From TrEMBL:
Its EC number is 2.3.1.39. Gene3D superfamilies: Malonyl-CoA ACP transacylase, ACP-binding, Malonyl-Coenzyme A Acyl Carrier Protein, domain 2. Residues 18-312 form the Malonyl-CoA:ACP transacylase (MAT) domain. The active site is at S101, H211. This is Malonyl CoA-acyl carrier protein transacylase. The keyword Transferase applies. It comes from Acinetobacter stercoris. The keyword Aminoacyl-tRNA synthetase does not apply. One of its GO terms (biological process) is fatty acid biosynthetic process. InterPro entries: Ac_transferase_dom_sf, Acyl_transferase_dom, Acyl_Trfase/lysoPLipase, Mal-CoA-ACP_Trans/PKS_FabD, Malonyl_CoA-ACP_transAc, Malonyl_CoA-ACP_transAc_FabD, Malonyl_transacylase_ACP-bd. It catalyses: holo-[ACP] + malonyl-CoA = malonyl-[ACP] + CoA. Pfam families: Acyl_transf_1.
Amino acid sequence: MSAKRLEQAAQATKTAFVFPGQGSQKVGMLAELAQQFSGVTDTFAEASEAIGFDLWHIAQSGEGLDQTENTQPVLLTASIALWRVWLELGGLAPRYLAGHSLGEYSALVAANSMSLADAVKLVNLRGKLMQSAVPQGEGAMAAILGLDDAKVIELCQAVSKTGNGSVEAANYNAQGQVVIAGTASLVQDVMTQAKEQSGKAIALPVSVPSHCSLMKPAAEKFAEALEQTAIELPSIPVIQNVNAGIATNVADLRQALTQQLYQSVQWTKTMQYLQDQGVQYIVECGPGNVLANLAKRLPNIEKAFPIDTKSRMEDALNAILVAEGKIA
């Protein structure tokens, strides 16, 4: 669908699409849908040609899928494949788009802000730069549950003053759910203190500490690649991670993507913004249902749908058309 038609179709809906980030990947993703919709493998072939290696093979075999520079382009391509199938089947264009971390790039491709070819090359580089910014084993991330945001920030600041390195709030995912990132030993200290204060702490199986100041060296190099990439303002508004706002010019958009590497993902504020704008239905466009499950907790979201299997896609298509008054 052209950018203009997409923009016109999206304006009247109460639906937003959200695109997941790293961690949602799984071996064999989209295999069932690919058997029925050639657009899935066509999308992977397009992205693979641009990047120079077989992303579909990685997605289906799992070979190298846990390597950040592979995970990111595979996930982005999977999300865009689902987006294209949705539109092919007559799914409504959403009023807003948002993506969690890596998912912001999927949202920008869906909104015709950048091409799929450019995006997969960008996120492949993004993964490489992130991995090289912190030596293996020196960084870590953990989910802190059951404490309010202010308490998690307080713990991070206190621990950072006592040790070598830093630890910061990286993802504000929901009320009572904050992911921290930083120097591995300090992340462990915050986890210990969080448990002592009746919170829960879960170490995340990641190879890089995303969205913290340790990623600043990567961001500086990544900014150069962004400057060389053709980017336009999105045809559907994309809510940005760093400020839960919408860029009004391309320069601000590029800056926000650079800052995203070392600043917190403001997902709680992003979802609040969508609710404030009257969004009632959320579709998660990517493997899994993590973001859909988070959305289901929100007071003004009536329904949230994953669409990564045939049955889930069909359920969401019909439910959204009924909810938006397109069919009885």
